Amino acid sequence: MTNAQKKNETDTTTVQDDENMRPFETDVSRLLDIVANALYSNRDVFLRELISNAADACDRLRYEALSNNNLTKGSASFNITITPDRDMATLTITDNGIGMNKEDLINNLGTIARSGTAAILENLKSQGQEKDMSLIGQFGVGFYASFMVAGHVDVISRKAGEDKTYYWRSDGRTGFTIREATDEEAKQLTDNHGTLIKLFIKGDAFDYMIDDKIKQIVSAYSDHIEIPIYLEDGKELKEGETREPINAASALWTRPKNEITEEQYKEFYHHIGTAFDDPILKTHWTAEGVIEYTSLLFIPSLRPWDLYDPNAKSGLRLYVKRVFITDQLDTLLYPWLRFVSGIVDSQDLPLNISREMLQSNPVVSKIRSGVTKRILNEIDKLSTQDEAAFATLWGQFGAVMKEGLYDAVEHREALFKICRFFSTHDNEKQTSLSDYIERMSDAQEKIYYITGDKIESLRNSPQLEGFKSRDIEVLMMTDTVDEFWLQQVGDYQGKKFQSVTQGNVDLSKFEKNKPEDEKKTEKTAEHKKEIETFTAYLQTQLADQIAFVRPSKRLTESPVCLVADEGGVDINMEKTLRLQQKYEPGIKKVLEINPDHTLIQTLASMAAAEKDETFLKDAALMLMDQALIIQGESLPDPSGFAKRMAEFMQRGLS
Ligand code: ADP
Ligand code: MG
Prior knowledge:
About 40% of the residues lie in helices and about 20% in strands. It is of the alpha+beta class and about 650 residues long.
C-alpha cells in the first residue's frame, strides 16, 4: 500500500472538521452503511454507475442545447474521460455534460434521488434483511456505489449556462461539505460545464487504477454507451494521432442486431432501467411505413419494487433521431405496461419539440399503439416458445396487464390472447380463454367464473359444486382488478362472462356425471312440499340478514351457500368495495339451500310438522353462520354462534 492509499483510508478529518459540513439524511446514511459493510459480490459496478450518470448528463445537455445553443457554445462533442493516478491513488471520471449547481449537488448527491433505490431499502427494511446485504451490489446503488472503492469522494461541477463552479466532498459516512470551487479546482473540468468525480481509492481497491482493468470493466458494462469514453493513460500521443475511445461509442439500438451480444443488451437494460435483474423478454425492431422508429424494449424478470407506486420513474426513454428527449412522457406507454423499459427512437418527431407538446402529439400515440401491439405479440409468442418464462412473466405482471382490458379497448383482443386463468379443469396450470372455449360443451353458452381472495378457498367453494358435478369448467380469479374488468367487459368472442356466485344459474340442461346424483334429485321430488315450507320459514327467520331464500341448483354437497342477486353487486366485488373503498353497498345476499341434502330434508320435515320450534330457530341461524364462514365473512354474533354450536354438540352426544 502506498502512503497515498493509506491516507485515503483514514482521511476523514477534511470532511468532519469543515464548518460547511452537512449530515446525510437518514436514508442515505443507512444506504451508505450497507454499502460500506456489505460483502460485495461485484464491486466493478461502481464504474458502471458513474459512467451511466455521466452519459445521462451528456444526453440531457444535448437536449437542452437544442433550444439554447449557448449552453454548449455551439460545440457539442460530448465525452467521458477516466483518469487513473496511481501515485495519488485516485481515479477521476470527468464528463462535459449538463453539470450540477449547488442545489443540484445537495439534492442529488445528498439525498436518495432514485426512487428505485429508496424502495429497495424500504423493502429490505421491512423484511428485516439488512444483515444479508451481499446482493445489493447487483442492484446498483447509483452514485453511492463510489464508496465501495473510495474512502472519500470529491465532486467538482459546473452547470451549463451558469458561472459558478462548486466543490462537494464526502467521506461516505457522516455527511458532505459543499462550497464554491477555487479557480485551481474549476480548471480541472474539461469544459466550462460538466462534472468531475475524483475517487480516493481505498487500499483494497488498487486494481481499479490499472488500465486493463478499467478497459475490461468498460467493455463489459458500458460498451453500449453512445458517448465516447476515453482512458487517460498518460501515454504521449504522436503527431496526428488521436486518442481512441475504449467503448464502441455508438447507440446500441442503431447497430445491426446480429452484432449485438446478449451481454450488451443486458447491460443496456441495466443502464436505462432501475432494475438489475436479467430481462425475461427483449425485443428490438425498426418500424417502417407511415411512421418510422426504432425501439428496443425489455420486460424484467423481477417485479420492480415500485410497480404500484404512482410516482415511479418511467423506464421508457424517448429519443428523436438519436437525441435523448425525455424519460417522462407518460403518453408513450400505457400505464398497464409500466413495467416495460427501453427506448424509442423516432424519425418523425421534430427535434425542437417541447416536452409539453409531446404529450398530445399524434405521432406519439401512433408509436404507443405500435409499441403495445409489438409487446403483446411478443408475449404471445413467448407463451408458445418458452412456457416457463411466460408463466413467470404472467405471474409477475398479469394483474397489471389486465387493467388494459378496460383501459385500452383497441388492444383488448390481443390482451385476451395472453390472459391466463386458473380453472377447475387443471389444478396447476392456468388456461387461456381460447382453450377454455374449446373445452366447452355445445350446450354451454357462457364463460363461468368465480372471484375471491385465494385460489385454495375458491376451489372448495360450495357454489362450484353443481358445476363440478356436471363437468362444467369454471375460471377462478383472485386479482382485485378482475372484478373491475369483468364489470366492463361483457363477453369474449360472443360468450358472456357469468359469475357462478350471482343470479339464478340454471344447470338443469347439463347432465350430472354421477348417476347417484340423479337419484338424489328424484328423492328430492318427494320432499318438494316440505322444502317449500322450510324455505318460507327460513325467509322469515333470517329476514334481517338476507334478501330471500331459494332452493339451489348449484349445490350438490354443501347444505347452504350465499350468492348475489341477479342485478346486484357480485359477492366478492361487494367485499372488495367494502375493504378497499370503505363503501357499504348495503345489498343483502341470497341464501340458497340444497334440497338434495339430508340435513335440509330432515329440517324441512321438522318445519312441516311444526316440531321443536326453538331448535329450528337455532338451526336457521346456524345455517346462515355456516354460509358466512365459507364465504370468509365475519359472523354478526360470534358468541351466539358459539353457544348454539355447543348446544348442537351436546345434543349430538346425548
Ligand atoms: P440515478 O442516476 O438513478 O438518478 P444516482 O445516484 O446514480 O441515481 O445519481 C443521482 C443523481 O445525481 C442523478 O439523477 C443526477 O441528477 C445527478 N448526477 C449524478 N452524476 C452526475 C453527473 N455526472 N452529471 C450531472 N448530474 C449527475
Ligand atoms: Mg445513476
